[in-house]
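Run DUF2630 domain-containing protein through structure prediction, thanks.
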Amino acid sequence: MADEDIITRISALVDEEHQLRSGSGGDTQRLGELETQLDQCWDLLRQRRAKREFGEPESEAQVRPAETVEKYLS
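Sure, done. The structure for DUF2630 domain-containing protein is below.
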């Protein structure tokens, strides 16, 4: 998956998140899923950029489990 594909996916997830948040009440379960997927996408993009920066194959970057990305500190 190329960086552009990841960015497109992030954009689609953000759009869906905004739609859910602008509605009445929103679907809290789906919002949680979206937040996790966004965290995973951003993590994958950061991994790819770091590998590129240090001369490693960016194709080795992998989506990390939700349990991993959800424990990162801001």
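The CA atoms of residues 59 and 66 lie 20 Å apart.
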